[in-house]
Automatic annotation (TrEMBL):
<protein>
    <submittedName>
        <fullName>D-glycerate dehydrogenase</fullName>
        <ecNumber>1.1.1.-</ecNumber>
    </submittedName>
</protein>
<keyword id="KW-0560">Oxidoreductase</keyword>
Amino acid sequence: MKPYIYITRKLPDEVIAPLLEKYEVKMWEKEDVVVPRSVLLEEASRADALLTMLSDQVNEELFSVSTKLKIVANLAVGFDNIDLAAASAHGVAICNTPDVLTDATADLTFGLLMATARRIVEAAEFVKEGNWKSWSPLLLAGNDIHHKTIGIVGMGSIGAAVAKRAFGFDMKVLYHNRSRKVELESQLGAAYCSFDELVEQADFIVCLTPLTPETRNLFTRAVFKRMKDNAVFINASRGPVVNEEELYDALVAGDIAAAGLDVFDKEPIDKNHPLLSLSNVVALPHIGSASIDTRMNMMRLCVENIDAVLSGKEPKTLVKK
Ligand code: GLV
Ligand code: GLV
């Protein structure tokens, strides 16, 4: 019997074609609907490998029914949807998709920063809605980006790639991270500082830290209050790093100028969420790595990792515990 691979979302046929000779492969048939939990658990109970999305909870409940499971390949660099301790207790390898998405995610993060600072989305809607009656000196005037200070919270590879883009815009780069990145300090003139110094000094605070117990609820009202009044906050990591109610209060009270958000506490965000009623919020549907080339590369990497583990080889990108 061929080993069985279950994929929790419909992927293009060309991605799974290389697997079909050696493996039995089944995909959840919908492209834009999350696999129901009962279906996932049923499939997991007979799967040798799972290819999962960041919207799937891969936890003890799942591992305990998955007696044959050897690998979970998650189509994301983040793996906060996976209980690593439970995976290791059950001897299941966990793989993610680092590196292949670094530049695409940095491009989107910097694009979101620019869109938020220069009110690009609001301005585009303004034109399409027929509101453009005359050119005027301060019409939709936003914040400068060039020569300002960017503060990057979470200086992993994506943070470093954002710093490189900021350097090209003549920005001063501050960063906060668990460990110092001395090579970036010399390459980009990035300066390491404490979290408090960063939030007080930066004009743009860009959150790229993974979601962990330490970073959950990191950005609270007290933190927004310490930021400059004209600061722009960007989140391209995970929603729960930010206290959304307190971000809303901060934006309404004018503690900061604007926010650009690619991620939310609950995804998809409800269209009646208070944050979406604010004109100084740019909201995107978690599309950090969503270029066609990058998403295809991420899928191929997941497939290679699965094939490696099921063939008794080392996967390319095993998550380190
Ligand atoms: C996306 O958010 C990812 O972790 O790849
Ligand atoms: C976060 O995901 C990072 O790479 O900084």
